[in-house]
Design goal:
53% helix; extended; 559 residues; alpha+beta
């Protein structure tokens, strides 16, 4: 009798064996996608590169420099916004959903209801009643056993601000498809239930009372409006709009097929990677007077084994045998049986399912030569992802503004481009040369911020003007000194302008000499003309100062 189920299975071209493992529930799909991320090197590498590559520096759109500095300090140094964006991008690509909320630090105090003495919860030896979310302890002031009133005071240490990552497998969404509004709930994992019911003080001291009360009652945590950010991938209309659909869902059949092929390769490697060798006396029955007719195999075999051991110790050992010895190999043909090409094809199908060119994963210049259409498609995919992450960054910034009482600002990421368009840059330069492209547009096309470049240009002009003023002041000082020396030592025999010009020429000549030669020349000049010597000394000092300023200006000027 034939199995009718097998017959039906093979008669239906769409009823593949692998589809029996396809998840039926969304939460099960999350588990499979998570497993695929950890088990498939191609999937893991692709998701990480997609997550990291388009993330650029955060930019605050506000004219208030002190406000921008305050935000950048919190976002970059305290929250580490780039790492948070990459983390959300990884969840987005694996689960098709990323849920985030913000944790602002606080210090928990317990207040005695009798004497009103307040004390830090870390300094109290309390007992926690999980079902009632109550803290019982003996007040150190009134010495009475009380149930403390909880008072959470804001902690000003912004370094402890944390972004909470909520596991999509434990999330639940109540969605209204007409209004587009959603309510979000979280069902706690067993690990957190155990921490609360066992009285884990490290967990209890810094966890919000809303969470502790929900766990104590065995209920799901409901998020207040605006307190959770949901980033989700687009899904067809036939899919529940409350959730995003993981992009990895189309790669599951290929992954199942790849796993089966790899399992086959594993079995082949275990059984046939090494050959089994059999030694035997090589002769034919037709040979008259065969050695085996007069030689016992029981004697020949120990001699063969003994000679084999000697050969293992000494490769030059020679064995004498009265007849030929044959060898037969069993197995050892694993290479011919491996299905590596089929595995490679399925792995490429997995990459295609993720919409990634092979060059993006493996690297190489062939991606740049693959055509503008391929690059544009890939760039648009990444820009779509960046748009979601910018909204997430704005949500974080708005929460920071609300908590820190700061002015609300608009944030964005620095402009992302997959590759530099060299030809377009040349066209922009030509358009700017004939006056059709403004300076700001040219700078943006070259990857520069016009405002920053204007500030740098203004600072350069100020520095150059300051340098020119210092040079002019030094020249005036030198001229005045020369005039004073001339009037004091020989008021009638010197022309100040002529003396100054000659002194500057001599100073430049002396500056090119080595130190010993310069010193001897100055001594001779001092004996010959004391007035000229004094002016030349001042000219040399000014020349050294000017050279030092020029070197300093070149070092400070950006490359």
């Amino acid at each position: 009798m034939f199995d009718t189920n097998i017959i039906n299975q093979y008669s239906n071209p769409f009823d593949l064996y692998f589809r029996e493992f396809n998840p039926r529930l969304l939460k099960e799909l999350f588990k499979w996608c998570e497993y695929l991320y950890y088990q498939s090197p191609h999937t893991s590498a692709t998701i990480k590169k997609f997550a990291e590559y388009p993330i650029t520096d955060i930019k605050i759109n506000n004219e208030n420099e002190s406000l921008k500095k305050a935000y950048l300090n919190i976002l970059n140094k305290k929250i580490k916004i780039k790492q948070q964006l990459i983390s959300a991008s990884i969840d987005f690509q694996i689960y098709g959903n990323a849920f985030r909320s913000m944790y602002f630090p606080f210090v928990r105090f317990l207040i005695c209801p009798k004497c009103k003495v307040r004390k830090n919860i870390k300094d109290i030896n309390y007992e926690y009643e999980s079902k009632k979310a109550k803290f019982k302890y003996t007040c150190h002031a009134c010495k009475k056993s009380v149930v403390g009133e909880v008072k959470d005071v804001k902690n000003t240490d912004s370094k402890k601000v944390n972004i909470i990552k909520w596991d999509p497998k434990y999330m639940d969404v109540n969605h209204n498809p007409y209004s587009g509004e959603s309510e979000y709930y979280y069902d706690f994992p067993n690990e957190q239930y155990q921490k609360v019911h066992s009285g884990n003080k490290f967990f209890l001291n810094s966890t919000s009372m809303e969470v502790l009360e929900a766990i104590g009652k065995g209920e799901m945590l409901k998020f207040s409006e605006g307190k959770i950010c949901h980033i989700k991938a687009d899904a067809p209309s036939g899919v529940n709009n409350a959730w995003g659909l993981p992009t990895l869902v189309s790669t599951l059949p290929s992954y199942f097929h790849t796993s089966l092929l790899k399992k086959g390769n594993e079995a082949i490697a275990l059984e046939r990677i090494l050959s089994f060798r059999v030694l035997f006396p090589q002769f034919t029955n037709s040979t008259p007077g065969s050695p085996m007719e007069v030689i016992s195999a029981n004697k020949w075999l120990p001699q063969l084994i003994d000679n084999y051991k000697k050969w293992r110790k000494d490769p030059n050992h020679i064995m004498f045998s009265p007849f030929g010895v044959g060898v037969s190999h069993i197995g050892g043909d694993a290479k011919a049986l491996f299905v590596s090409n089929e595995i490679q094809m399925e792995e490429e199908n997995i990459m295609v399912g993720q919409g990634v060119p092979k060059e993006f994963l493996y690297g190489g210049l062939s991606l740049l030569n693959s055509g503008s259409i391929t690059l544009r498609i890939l760039e648009n995919m990444l820009l779509t992802l960046v748009g979601q992450l910018v909204d997430y960054a704005q949500w974080i910034t708005d929460n920071v503004a609300d908590e820190e009482n700061l002015e609300v600002v608009e944030v964005e990421l620095e402009k992302f481009k997959l590759v530099d368009d060299v030809e377009q840059k040349k066209i922009n330069l030509d358009l700017h040369g004939i006056g059709l492209l403004p300076d700001s547009e040219l700078l943006e096309s070259q990857g520069f911020d016009p405002k920053i470049m204007q500030e740098k240009r203004k600072q350069d002009e100020i520095d150059n003007a300051r340098l020119q003023n210092e040079i002019q002041e030094a020249i005036n000082k030198l001229q005045n000194a020369a005039s004073k020396v001339t009037m004091m030592q020989n008021p009638q025999g010197y022309n100040p302008q002529m003396v100054l010009g000659q002194a500057q020429q001599l100073a430049m000549q002396f500056a090119s000499l080595d130190e010993s030669m310069r010193k001897s020349q100055l001594i001779a000049l001092q004996k010959e003309d004391a007035v000229m010597y004094a002016v030349v000394i001042q000219a040399l000092e000014q020349l050294n100062t000017d050279n030092a300023n020029v070197v300093k200006q070149q070092v400070q000027q950006p490359a």
